[in-house]
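Progress note, sequence design subtask.
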């Protein structure tokens, strides 16, 4: 098997972000999109807090993926009406080749986001999948150290889920594991 490098470049205001992904293929001239669809249902799964990012950065990101022909899971278009959200999101995570985690101010306050992140960590440990990080309007050290607003969010979760403290511990560990990866800091960047 040969290895190839796929680079997706998208413009976010004056900031150019390169998302680099190594993938295996039996044919080195095959593009990631073609190769990944053989083994995965989605090329990319993006975990994000909708109230912070859906109508700005996330829309730009999804448009860039679409322009490049990258098949990305979107909860507002890929979920069938009447289906349970939880199982479908978990299937989408399992069926994705690459993950993008967009950490924002209220990301840790969402139990959905933390459950997605926990599942992403499971997938990373079980396979050669990768996660790319974006810190949107939040200090990366606050996310990594789980301090400030992230500390407050976890304190609320610990209070709310006293009967299942292991769940909150798993969320903390997932956040710690993923946030330790180098990512892009988009604080104070202009919106397009």
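Output:
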């Amino acid at each position: 098997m040969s290895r190839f490098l796929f680079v997706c470049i998208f413009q976010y205001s004056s900031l150019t972000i390169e998302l680099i992904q190594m993938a295996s293929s039996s044919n080195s001239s095959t593009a990631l999109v073609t190769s990944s669809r053989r083994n995965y249902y989605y090329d990319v799964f993006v975990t994000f807090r909708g109230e912070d990012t859906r109508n700005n950065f996330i829309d730009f990101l999804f448009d860039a993926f679409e322009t490049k022909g990258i098949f990305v899971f979107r909860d507002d278009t890929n979920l069938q009406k009447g289906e349970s959200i939880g199982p479908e999101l978990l299937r989408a995570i399992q069926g994705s080749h690459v993950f993008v985690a967009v950490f924002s101010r209220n990301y840790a306050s969402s139990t959905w986001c933390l459950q997605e992140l926990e599942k992403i960590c499971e997938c990373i440990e079980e396979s050669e999948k990768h996660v790319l990080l974006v810190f949107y309007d939040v200090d990366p050290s606050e996310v990594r150290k789980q301090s400030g607003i992230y500390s407050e969010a976890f304190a609320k979760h610990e209070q709310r889920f006293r009967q299942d403290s292991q769940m909150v511990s798993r969320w903390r560990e997932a956040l710690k594991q993923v946030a330790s990866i180098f990512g892009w800091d988009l604080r104070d960047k202009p919106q397009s």
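Strands lie at 2-12, 15-25, 42-47, 72-73, 96-103, 130-135, 184-185. Work on this subtask will continue into the next period as scheduled.
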